[in-house]
Amino acid sequence: MVRNVIGSVLALAGAAAAVWSPFRAWYDGRPGGDYRIQDLFGGITDARTEITTSILLPFAFAALVTLIGVVLRSRVLVALAGLVVLGFTILWMVRQGQAAGSLTVGGEGPVLGDGVAAALGGGLLLLLGALVMAGRSPRVEGFEEERDWDESGYPPAADEPYGWAPGPGDTQPLPTYPPQPTQPYPSQPTQPYPSQPYPSQPTQSGYPVDPAGPSTPRRPRPDPYGAGPGQDPFRGDDDPRR
């Protein structure tokens, strides 16, 4: 901000000096407003012209460009105005040197006036102001998208995919959204495991053979009470029911 202010002041001062310079003496007491614009391209003559068709015209154009550049904070426009002022001033010096044979700053005879110094100083101030100015700050995008706001000051519900929460002074109700249809996952048919019953072939011990186990038939467990085959181990030898 400070750089823009200082640069703008320098640029405006340079533009004012450039516009004021044609009213001062440029060479041998002749003001710059007496030189025609076409003399800068075809050669300096003694013909005089109006102020509106003189060398003041490009300087006034440079001052207008400077004002636009200061308002827009454009360094390019201010630098362009400085180049215009310096370009036309140097071109006049070249043509005047060709017409007079030489240019003298001070001394006896025809010399350069203070109008040339004001024009050169104005162009340099314009370039200096363009260098000092910081220009316009770049706009940062991507943090927040631009949204279209309605007359009530609230964003439309279509632009708010996740809804919004009203503040303490808000009276507009929350936007409602239609429920999204959900499709259940298709149920997968389950296949029961095939049952594999044990084979019912009788063996010598009376027990079926386990297909997952060994092929040797199971032996009967011995009686812990010493009863023989066909006897009840819970009855004594003198039991009449045997």
TrEMBL record:
Q: Which domain of life is it from?
A: Bacteria
Provide the protein name. Answer: Uncharacterized protein
- Source organism of this protein record: Streptomyces pratisoli
